Records
---
Amino acid sequence: MNAFYYRPIAQTDRHRSAGALALAGGWSWFTHVERLSREAAPEIIPAAAVPEAELRHFVNRRGLVCGLAMDTPRIMGILNATPDSFSDGGLHNSFEGAVKRGFEMAANGADIFDIGGESTRPGAVFVPPEEEIARTVPVIKALRAGGFDLPISIDTRKAAVADAALSAGAGMFNDVTAFTYDEDSASVAAKHGASACLMHAQGDPKTMQDDPHYDNVLLDVYDHLAARVAYAERHGIARGQIVVDVGIGFGKTIEHNMALIRGMSLFHGLGCVVLLGVSRKRFIGVIGNAQEAADRVAGSIALGLEAVRQGVQILRVHDIKETKQAISLWQATR
């Protein structure tokens, strides 16, 4: 028996078809889906032909993430308090610089502040938890003491780091390993009642770009995330608090990345908020002829808007002001 997967064919035209269904209770809608299988060719079928249990995941309005409603596209601002991250490493790894940048992000229109103390770029080396805590937790405490009221996400794969950050005022555990690196991670998130972002990655940062391979990248990533969402639920984290991230560039070729972006609407079938993180990544420079990371803003925004068109609720970006402007103009045309 074939296992079927369903990808809504997302639309955003203001002239919405009669009987169209809202995608994840948001701004995109659909009347048909692409039915996918590992054994059969794709085919287009009416949304009404999707089994009720699967269809429910596609249409149900998403829960709050860190207290934020997902009824409009949200921007997660990236702060790497590291010396070696691929785009902004070394720019904000002083305590004062990191705190200042946090307030700048809020002023520029960020909805969520994501801070990390260990680079996950290809080839990055391990950072001990004590050092990672020292890079991030004092910044979180200082921001909260200064009246910073945006939700804060801690970008880490280590339970001890997340525990310290959540105790200091963070509200989301953003784990690039989807709770596979540290067996205590899910229980830490549950203990704090935190939202959790579960990302797909093949391999670890040091080796992940060494000839990555998939049988079917879209379906392989979907199956992995479905298993990790189920794992998180078993450990006390409600599906409404879970965000999923396909992990663009984490053990993936350019072709893998583009297949995932083209098929992003599939991941609404997990019943979770969907996040896309493509900001300034290397493949954008290859396709868009931009060697320097800082020159990839336009390409990052183009891909972000395509994801928003497919109903993706959160964009994780370096360039907040520019992304905010692009989303505002995109919304004005709807």
Note: Residues 1-61 form one domain.
---
Amino acid sequence: MAPRTFWKGYLKLSLVTCPVEMMPATSESGKVRFHTLNRKTGNRVVARYVDSVTRKPVDEADEARGYPRGEDDYVLLEEDEIEDVALASTRTIDIETFVPKDAIGWIWYDKPHYLTPSDKVGEEAFAVIREAMAANKVVGISRLVMYRRERAVLLEARDRGIVLWTLRYGDEVRDQEDYFVGLAQEKSEAGQLALMKKYIKARTREWDASLAEDPVQDRLLDLIEERKKKRKPRAAKPKAEELPSNVVNIMDALKASLARSRKN
């Protein structure tokens, strides 16, 4: 079953406009989630904001947003003031800029969404925008208010639709050079590299969604079922992988790994 539409609006490119709808491309609805309970009563625990000094609960009407400017000193802002600095329109994706498809690094990509025309009338205009981006090998850049914040978004032609990615903010992305610059640029020995290539080739397979399964989720569901039946779980906790206690010869390790891979 297709997920329920969570956003409707318009896709605009110059004078071409079409009505569209958007759905998140990923979901966490199947994840096991727990509530915090009072062990003595079995009742759910309710979270409340508490004054850090008086330790008394704060009424919702007295809650305010504050930006720290010093120790115990804040600039207070009202919700309507925060909303006023956002985009005037939250219902139009106006594409004004395009960049080469491969120009944006993976680290900027945040959340994917599926964008489709919301009625038959807009399908032709939607298709023209999609096919033109695909033909030029570019992606569109726009801005949109999503998840209560103004976001830069990227639009990529994909099959018969468009994938809209929210992009990370500039202050969220760290430069990889800050971490990789100190690493030695040594070249691998030819023999070691050849063996490693053989091992990787022997372990290469087609991508399948099962490779991204969550085994902990499955074990949690089994545990919950056992508890529902009021029986103790029989599944033993998987043993943690033991780390090697000594440094081994790389060539020997590669040969052993390759031999083991061939047996499997």
Note: The chain has six helices and ten strands.
